[in-house]
Specification:
There is one protein chain. With 226 residues, the protein is an alpha/beta fold. 49% of the residues lie in helices and 12% in strands. The protein has a 5-stranded parallel sheet with strand order 2-1-3-4-5, sandwiched between helices. β4, α4 and β5 form a beta-alpha-beta unit. α2 packs parallel to α3, α3 runs parallel beside α4 and α8 crosses α10.
Length: 226
């Protein structure tokens, strides 16, 4: 059973999400919070698999709440809820440890799929808007030597990281590299460990911030360590 915590200051939004998710086999909403501070407390008490987190809320906003939840060592995955006019906040949320984001007006099937993807340990990177956000809000790094952790990756791990950074799923990476899904999972696990990051989303951010991937690069051609 995948457990979900809803954190949103709008009761109608929480009610709508609960109605959708509680009807889905294998998903259960275990709590609701109307602001970030309450969300942090309930996350600690309930240990949900997934937290649907709004950005703008009273008392404590969704970005700071996410930061506190992740810093506290929680295994819960945070899925940020946003609207197009709040895009400037999304990158900050990803940097502090969110595993992805979802538009509030997403259709029912997309909401359910997003919860399942994040609960399964994946990051929600596939939608094109995610790639645009990453490229828009990451400052161009100063060219130079890549961090040691990135330089330590094998050639195949660098290929996998480059594909992750462009939103490819494990299945898409497997197809691109002519390997099995299991092999991709092994490469991903190893590169996360080498980079010292929590999940795929954090690896993607590191790839951009370090200059390993730069906005506008041709697909699958990350720079080599110097």
């Amino acid at each position: 059973m995948t457990t979900v915590l809803l954190v949103d200051d709008q009761e109608l939004v929480r009610t709508g999400f609960r109605l959708i998710l509680d009807l889905e086999p294998g998903i259960e909403v275990v709590g609701e919070a109307s602001h970030g501070a309450e969300g942090v407390r309930l996350a600690s008490e309930l240990h949900p698999d997934v937290i649907l987190m709004d950005v703008r809320m009273p008392v404590l906003d969704g970005i700071r709440a996410t930061e506190q939840i992740v810093a506290g060592g929680s295994a819960s995955r945070v899925l940020i809820l946003t609207t197009f006019d709040l895009d400037e906040f999304v990158y900050d949320a990803l940097r502090v440890g969110a595993s992805g984001f979802l538009l509030k007006d997403a259709p029912r099937d997309q909401l359910i799929a997003a919860v399942r993807v994040v609960a399964g340990g994946e990051s929600l990177l596939a939608p094109p808007i995610t790639r645009r956000l990453i490229e828009r809000f990451i400052a161009q790094p100063t060219p130079g030597r890549l961090p040691d952790a990135v330089a330590a990756l094998s050639d195949r791990e660098r290929e996998v990281l480059g594909l992750l950074a462009r939103g490819s799923s494990n299945a898409e990476i497997a197809t691109e590299l002519f390997v099995s899904d299991a092999t991709v999972k092994t490469h991903v696990a190893r590169l996360l460990a080498k980079l010292g990051v929590r999940d795929r989303m954090q690896a993607v951010i590191l790839a951009y911030e370090s200059g390993f991937i730069r906005p506008g690069d041709a697909p699958h051609t990350p720079p080599r360590p110097q």
